Amino acid sequence: MRNSVTLLVVLFVCQIATTQNYKFGKVSKDELLEKFNPLDSSASATYLYKYRKTFFEYDQDRGFKLITEIHERVKIYNQEGFEYATKAIRLYKSNSAQEKVTVLKAYTYNLTEGKVEDVKLKKDGIFKTEKSRYRNETKFTMPNIKEGSIVEYEYRITSPFYHNVDEFQFQHAIPIKKIEAQFQSPEYYSFKVNVKGYLPVIPKVEKQRDKITFKYKNRYEGGSTSGVKTTYSSSDLEFTKTVSFYNLVNIPALKEEPHVSNINNYRSSVKYELSYVHLPQSTIKYYSTTWEDVVKSIYKNSNFGTELDKSGYYDDDLDALIGTVSDPSKRVALIFDFVKSKVKWNEYYGILTSNGVKKAYKEQVGNVAEINLMLTSMLRYAKLTANPVLVSTRHNGIPLFPTREGYNYVISCVELPTGKVLLDATDKYSSPNILPYRVLNWEGRIIKKDGSSSLVNLYPEENSKNTSSLLVNLSEDGTIEGSYRGVKTNHSALSYREKYNNKNEDDFIEKLENKYKGLEISDFKVTNAVELTKPIMETYKFAKESQADIIGDKMYFSPLFFLRKKENPFKLEKREFPVDFGYPSSNRYRVSIRLPDGYKVESMPKAEAFALPNNLGSFKYILSQNETIMQLLIESKINTPIISSMDYEVLKLYFKQLIEKENQQIVLTKK
Fold first, then answer.
1. Computed from CA positions of residues 368, 373, 379, 384, in that sequence, does the dihedral angle turn out positive or negative?
2. 433-462: per-residue pLDDT in tens?
3. What is 310-329 written as a DSSP string?
4. CA 127 to chain centre
């Protein structure tokens, strides 16, 4: 019966989706009366309609330009959905060329006394800002937003960057009732189509005829009596264009899940990437079609390969630094630390230099490419085998197909007798093979001088260790006092240094106390905060009330106290995405508990050990006692940064067992 009802709801919603009027401004009372999405009652908002058309338009003075027309209608159910009343439009720019928004119109609709009331977006609600040297933003917030409102807007983007077609996204964080989209490309531009995600997205493709009309104005002398005359003429150039139509209904929300590197990696979408251009009476200009093409085009760029060959700006400094050092590992360490201290990262990403390595060295500031291409050049100057590595950062996604646009970052790789060493000199707390977290994203592509390339794993092989030791005095009223000592290595240490060194210590301590909900911390100390070759160490004394439940003459408490995990991060029944922990890790807890006078142990958790299959992870719990002291040892490991979605169920069970074990209680009773 339930399945029949569900089917009827789906059919009803599909019928509404196909009969609804999506013409701009034709918002219905039924849409305004809708209290929730029938197929997802948890949704705070829903796209009732999304329309996009991207096509080429010819300008007789400037040639082809890329046009994108957008029309969206959004239903807002509650206050959580108010964020969808604000729209931010990213606009790219390069030197004097830039994308622009035109023909923007927008309305908010509400139902007032049974009538549809609309409020127009005014100019003072539109804000244009420069976000960086490469990007502008046009942003607007709709007026008169209430629970139940509908917002609707249309705009047009004109872009001179015909080679860069924004991805067609068919899935968002809220459901979509209907999508219509189309992409038109003239026969002169050939595009590859890259599809990702789990939704079946199949376009209807047609060939259509079109034409460009060229207009001419001619002036000539008409003779001594008639003066200058002007004539007008025109001619048409016919061509074929390819049109891809997309029509989808009832697309479910793509919801964030814990330990996902970038949800966009799994968003159903289509990316059109320019393969080649063949204009009339011109030779073919190829863009990326294979990884070999991508690598060659990047390396030949004057803002990449040419920058690697420059050395005159640093040779004297480098000779003085490594002139007496012959050991390759020591040379790498000296050069790496020199670049980190010499040039500060301006927080601009990119695989190409902006102002050049020489200027970055002189002014001691540069983007990612300037810093790490400089590093690679210096390593080569020191007679080491070093090459740049193209990377797509975590927020940029995974380059699944041959593409220049897929990479937004570059690091350095040096080959030593002990193996490959990956380096990123933009982060002052990174060290050899300990890359910033933003870089830990599957694989990078090494580019060599001969134009060849190969893949390299960006994830570390060695576990990052986090060891916590507690000495605890438990009082008969349930209060605990004691001391804590934590030791962190590798990425755990890097993460801690970034948080601690970039924050006022008092604020850092306050945040730590709030994390553990009422923990009182004193004698706080951090050792090796900037000594990257040593583990970082954190020590403090603590006190916390109400850490045991006292019922009659018995006392109940978890021996891990405030450090125990309380909630399983994995709650979904099924998961389509792999679980990305970022790096392999191991956690060890050693807890020594002095029992309150007059109490003895009545019962305590048993020792236990369990593991994930294929050595993916393991957990061990050992608790021992003597007359007045209890000793707890917990070891948990995740031995791989990525766990397949096929192993999700066993991973979820593993964490369920781990949390249950950490929350098991010791029972004391009065002697």
1. positive
2. 999 999 999 999 999 988 889 999 999 999
3. --TTTHHHHHHHHTT---HH
4. 25
Lowest average pLDDT, out of 6-20, 280-294, 447-461, 591-605, goes to 6-20
C-alpha to C-alpha distance for 442 and 462, rounded to whole angstroms: 16
HSE-up (13 A, CA, CB side) for residue 457: 10
Alpha-carbon distance 437 to 208, whole Å? 48
* pLDDT value, residue 14: 47
Which tokens hold the place of 18?
């196909």
Domain covering 17-209+240-277 assigned CATH 2.60.40.3140 in the classification: yes
In residues, how long is the chain? 671
- As a whole number of angstroms, the distance between CA 389 and CA 310 comes to 18
Mapped onto helix, strand or coil, the DSSP state of residue 511 is: helix
**Nearest alpha-carbon partner for 437 in 640, 584, 582:** 582
CB-CB contact of 76 with 150 (8 Å): yes
* Beta-bridge mates of residue 204: 245
Task: List, in sequence order, every beta strand (DSSP E) within 328-408.
Answer: 344-345, 365-366, 385-391
Residue 94, token pair as written in the block: 């390069």
DSSP state, residue 167: P
543-564 average pLDDT score: 96
The type of residue at 438 is R
- The pTM of this model reads 0.82
Other C-beta atoms closer than 10 Å to the C-beta of 355 total: 15
Cβ-count burial of 112 within 10 angstroms (0-12 exposed, 13-18 middle, 19+ buried)?
A: exposed
CA angle 433, 436, 441 (to 5 degrees): 85
Instruction: Give the span between the Cα atoms of 479 and 474, in whole angstroms.
Output: 6
Tokens for 451? 């134009």
Q: Which two tokens stand for residue 16?
A: 């509404």
Cβ neighbors of 504 (< 8 A, separation 6 or more) are none
Domain 17-209+240-277 and domain 292-457 have a common topology = no
- Give the closest residue to 535 by CA, choosing from 431, 645, 423: 431
The whole-angstrom separation of Cα 368 and Cα 350 is 6
Confidence of residue 139 (pLDDT cuts 50, 70, 90): very high
Longest dimension (CA), the chain: 128
Q: pLDDT, tens digit, for every residue of 212-269? A: 988 888 877 665 556 677 888 888 899 999 999 999 999 999 988 889 888 888 899 9
First to last CA, the chain: 61
Segment 155-185, tens digit of pLDDT: 999 999 988 899 999 999 999 999 999 999 9
Beta strands in 8-99 (DSSP E): 45-59, 63-76, 86-94, 97-98
Q: Which residues contact 305 (CB under 8 A, 6 or more apart)?
A: 298, 299
State both tokens at 366: 């540069």
Q: Which numeric CATH code is attached to 292-457?
A: 3.10.620.30
- Give the fold, CATH level 3, of 464-670: Jelly Rolls (2.60.120)
* Residue 310 backbone class (left: φ over 0; alpha: ψ -120 to 50; beta: rest): beta
Return all residues near 599 (Cβ < 8 A) that are at least 6 apart. Answer: 476, 555, 668, 669, 670, 671
Half-sphere exposure of 58 (CA within 13 A, CB side): 16
CB atoms within 10 A of CB 327: 10
Q: What is the pLDDT of residues 512-541, one digit of tens each?
A: 999 999 899 999 999 999 999 999 999 999
Angle among Cα 599, 604, 609 to the nearest 5 degrees reads: 155
CB contact at 8 A, 632 and 571: no
Locate the domains of the chain by residue range. Answer: 17-209+240-277, 292-457, 464-670
